[in-house]
Write a structure and sequence with these properties.
The chain is of the alpha+beta class. The chain folds into 5 domains: about 150 residues, Rossmann fold; about 190 residues, Alpha-Beta Complex (Isoleucyl-tRNA Synthetase, domain 2), CATH 3.90.740; about 140 residues, Isoleucyl-tRNA Synthetase, Domain 1 (Orthogonal Bundle), CATH 1.10.730; about 70 residues; about 90 residues, hypothetical protein PF0899 fold, CATH 3.30.2320. It is about 35% helix and about 20% strand. The protein has a 6-stranded mixed beta sheet. Strands 2-1-12-14 form a 4-stranded antiparallel beta sheet. Strands 17-16-19-18 form a 4-stranded antiparallel beta sheet. The chain binds zinc ion (2 copies). The site of one zinc ion has 8 residues, from loops.
């Protein structure tokens, strides 16, 4: 009410007689932004070409086109464009007048008899199709209008004063009568006898039938086009002339455009496109709603002298906030007229709910009655987010009210997300049965997975092609990897009694892999920060996803053995401290995206310890110490990882499995640091590296000596014996006796690599010969060679 009073005082709130979108079921006018909410594509409607016979030239007709036959009983005039060339054509024994550019609407043979200047048509009278509308002023003649085009129709526009925005404006300008033939429920009035009481859309076929019988229908067919429906109840909307209340937003159009340009729109094209276009074609805000529930329009009118007053607070009514300010109570409140002393009563209108939502910045603080300081700090908002459908809804109402009240936009930054569609890119709807219940998604995969999907799936502004499988994919691709990495750390840390409060190994003394991970984390923090500063969550989310993948598939996989080692040396402490630090910082980076899993990790690792916050959501954004930075190491590690990928692909092409050691690889790079070279050789299972040439390529020495062959077979044997242990139901830590029978290359490999195989398979003894009864025995087959192997569990005491 306070806001409306401000607008009233600026003389921007007025009562007007206008054609507005109107819902005949709810019996209320709607605003053009509500109209924008309910457009449906592919709606089938009539498309009719109607004949208006000239009064002084029998059997000569103006042809006019409409998709709303129900407006024909309300016809009062025909409009032509002064600069459009018209023609008179003859077809059979009838003549038609239409735009020369629209001759294609005629069916069959015709002769053009004459070119017609639009000026000569002005004032020409025609016989009305129906006589139910009794005009109180001259009607049923041709006028000129600047909105007539030859893009469709016939170049002659049927004008029904009460049922079109242009029609009403034209009729008021030309002094043509504006009379209703349809009531507020969208039904023909009693005087329109043949269609009386019929809902207009139901009357369409009857009107077509009637005009066809009377020979006044030139052509009747159907078209599919876009038509607005009520967003509230789904009824087709009518354009209907009414007296109702408006906000004169057109008076602040330039300011709105200027303020829109001050907003940081993400993506920018919503601001420069959809919103800018909307503001360019702005009409006054249709504010009235004829409903029962909602905010009453606080305008009181004097019964005697028509004096009007806008009320800006409950105090002005002698009421308090404890009083019910809704209908019907508010309608009983009368005010004395300051002019004549008569009784003032409230108009019955309520206001557009989008005005309520646009009032949020002021209303949430009950400003200006309370919280003046708080409001000044918080307005305009730093950031809001909603779907693209709110451009003409909430975004507009916030912008309009902010501009009218404070001459500035109500928000500085806005993220506009696209629409959630089904997997095939169709809108979710009841009729297609393709909507997904959000509660089902969240109970199946969790709120974090659902959130991560929406953060990471598409670039901001694009539509989502959503289904359950894509959220499941988030779990598999990201959350499980994160959780398993955390789980790996948590298990070993517990077993080893790792204490994060212990003296930290200085970063420069940590293993190369640790220093690499910290360097990667430092860059990840900076990248995520930059994306978030730019209001770009998808880029931040994808960066975090890449980091977690690096952490799991490179750092943890390569470091596993460092955590297994039983002695607690400096290298192991370095690994623990590094992974701990990274997981704590990662939980902080993830907190805005996945609040639950990040809180769980933080609670278990850090909360409340060594001066850390009680919750990840209370902790500060992580800052990487400068000594984490190591771009040289990052660069070298990325070279190693690229070489590993190239090397594995080369092995694959040559048909050499990774278990088969190779003698050497020649790398076209400058020599790697020895530690990194060791990683490369271990990953590729190669004995030595040589450096020659440049360009980043790599050549494998594929010659396999008998010695290398035996080593490869030994690795195969380890794998097969591990499988046999598992099949025999042994526990991971069970010791065994290993027996083998047979000759040939497998036996040779086993003997040559006896110690290695014994260590890997936890065999306390390896013997040639038959196993005792009760042993698990299998004939192992590797590359066409056989070896009979038995395993026996050694009893533990
Ligand atoms: Zn409705
Ligand atoms: Zn009065």
């Amino acid at each position: 009410w306070w806001i409306l009073k401000q607008i009233w005082d600026k003389q921007l709130l007025y009562q007007g007689f206008k054609v507005v979108p109107y819902c005949p079921r709810d019996q209320t006018p709607l605003s053009s932004h509500e109209l924008a909410l309910g457009y449906q594509d592919d709606v089938e409607d009539p498309s009719v070409y109607v004949k208006f016979e000239l009064e002084d030239e029998p059997r000569t007709y103006f042809l006019a086109w409409t998709t709303t036959p129900w407006t024909l009983p309300g016809n009062v005039a025909l409009a032509v464009g002064l600069d459009i060339p018209y023609v008179r054509v003859r077809q059979g024994d009838e003549r038609y007048i239409l735009a020369k550019a629209r001759l294609s609407v005629l069916e069959g043979e015709y002769q053009v008899e004459a070119e017609v200047d639009a000026k000569t048509l002005l004032g020409k009278r025609y016989k009305p199709l129906y006589s139910y509308l009794v005009p109180d002023k001259p009607a049923f003649y041709v006028v000129d209008a600047d909105f007539v085009s030859v893009e469709d129709g016939t170049g002659i526009v049927h004008t029904a004063a009460a049922y079109g925005v242009d029609d009403l404006e034209l009729s008021l300008k030309k002094g043509i009568p504006v009379r209703h033939v349809v009531d507020l429920a969208g039904r023909f009035r009693p005087e329109v006898e043949p269609f009386a009481g019929l809902f207009v859309k139901k009357a369409d076929p009857k009107i077509i039938e009637d005009l066809t019988q009377r020979g006044l229908m030139y052509r009747a067919e159907t078209i599919r086009h876009t038509y607005p429906f009520c967003w509230r109840c789904g009824t087709p909307l009518l354009y209907y002339a009414l007296t109702s209340w408006f906000i004169k937003t057109t008076a602040v159009k330039d300011e709105l455009i200027r303020n829109n340009n001050l907003v940081n729109w993400v993506p920018p094209y919503v601001g420069t496109g959809r919103m800018a276009n909307w503001l360019e074609t702005l009409v006054d805000w249709s504010l009235s709603r004829w409903r029962y529930w909602g905010t009453p329009l606080p305008i009181w009118v004097c019964e005697q002298c028509d004096e009007r007053r806008c009320v800006g607070s409950v105090a002005e009514l002698g009421l308090t906030l404890n009083d019910d300010l809704h209908r019907p109570y508010i309608d009983r409140v009368t005010l004395p007229c300051a002019k004549c002393g008569g009784a003032m009563r409230r108009v019955t209108d309520l206001i557009d709910v989008w005005f309520d939502s646009g009032s949020m910045p002021v209303a949430q603080y009950h400003y200006p009655f309370e919280n003046e300081e708080l409001f000044k700090v918080r307005f305009p908002a730093d950031f809001i987010a909603e779907g693209v459908d709110q451009t003409r809804g909430w975004f507009f109402s916030l912008l309009a009210i902010g501009t009218m009240l404070f001459k500035q936009p109500a928000f500085k930054n806005v993220i506009v997300n696209g629409t959630v569609l089904d997997k095939q890119g169709r809108k979710m709807s009841k009729s297609l049965k393709n909507s997904v219940d959000p509660m089902e998604v969240m109970s199946k995969f969790g709120a974090d997975a659902t959130r991560w999907y929406f953060f990471s799936a598409v670039t901001i502004g694009n539509d989502y092609r959503f289904d359950l499988a894509s959220v499941q994919d988030v779990v598999r691709r990201f959350l499980l990897i994160l959780w398993n990495t955390y789980g790996f750390f948590a298990n070993y840390a517990r077993l080893d009694g790792f204490d994060p409060a212990g003296a930290a190994v200085p970063v420069r003394e940590r293993a190369q892999l640790d220093r690499w991970l910290l360097a990667e984390l430092a860059v990840a923090i900076a990248d995520v920060e930059k994306a978030m500063e730019a209001y770009d969550p998808p880029t931040a989310a994808r960066r975090l996803e890449a980091f977690v993948l690096d952490l799991s598939t490179w750092y943890v996989r390569r470091s596993r053995r460092r955590f297994w080692k039983s002695e607690s040396d400096a290298d192991k402490r370095s690994a623990y401290q590094t992974l701990y630090q990274v997981l704590v910082n990662l939980s902080q980076l993830l907190a805005p995206f996945t609040p639950f899993v990040s809180e769980t990790i933080y609670q278990n690792l850090a909360a409340g310890r060594q001066g850390q916050s009680e919750s990840v959501h209370l902790s500060d954004w992580p800052v990487a110490p400068t000594d984490w930075r190591d771009d040289e190491l990052r660069q070298q590690m990325s070279v190693v990882r690229r070489l590993v990928a190239t090397g594995l692909a080369a092995r694959n092409t040559a048909g050499l499995k990774v278990r088969q050691p190779l003698r050497a690889v020649t790398i076209a790079e400058r020599p790697l640091d020895p530690g990194l070279e060791a990683i490369l050789l271990e990953e590729l299972n190669i004995k030595a590296a040589r450096y020659q040439g440049e360009g980043g390529g790599l050549t494998l020495d594929t010659e396999i000596s008998p010695e290398l062959k035996l080593e490869g077979l030994a690795r195969d044997l380890v794998r097969k014996i591990q499988e046999l242990r598992k099949q025999s139901g042994f526990a991971v830590e069970d010791r065994i006796h290993l027996f083998y029978e047979g000759d040939g290359v497998l036996a040779e490999a086993l003997e040559r690599w006896r110690d290695y195989i014994a260590t890997e398979t936890l065999a306390v003894a390896v013997a040639r010969g038959a196993a005792p009864t009760g042993a698990s025995t299998e004939t192992l087959q590797i590359e066409g060679n056989d070896l009979r192997v038995s395993v026996v569990r050694v009893a533990t005491n």
